[in-house]
Amino acid sequence: MNKIITYVKESYYELVNKVSWPTLQEVTSSSVVVLTASVIIALVILAMDMAFGAQKYSLMQFLYAL
Q1: Residue 10 domain-assigned?
Q2: What is the pTM of this model?
Q3: Domain, as residue range, for 31
């Protein structure tokens, strides 16, 4: 039981005193970068899905009809 208490105390000390937490501005800017990249990747996947999909009016069906 003593080892567990020592582990918890050391973990708490490390989290409070040794870990460098990002500022609110850093977290916000990183979040914006991740959100922007996610939207761009989603749009690329949407475009690929619409181009190669089996919809009635897909880009590939239009090209094959030529």
Answers
A1: no
A2: 0.62
A3: 22-66
* Spatial distance between the Cα atoms of 66 and 61, rounded to a whole number of angstroms: 9
Is 28 inside any structural domain?
Answer: yes
CA–CA gap between residue 56 and residue 53 (Å, rounded): 9
pLDDT reading at 54 higher than 70? no
pLDDT (mean) for 21-25: 95
Q: Are 22 and 28 in contact (CB under 8 A)?
A: no
11 lies in a domain?
no
| 8 A C-beta contact, residue 46 and residue 38 | no
Whole-number Å distance between alpha carbons of 63 and 26: 46
Residue 3 maps to a domain: no
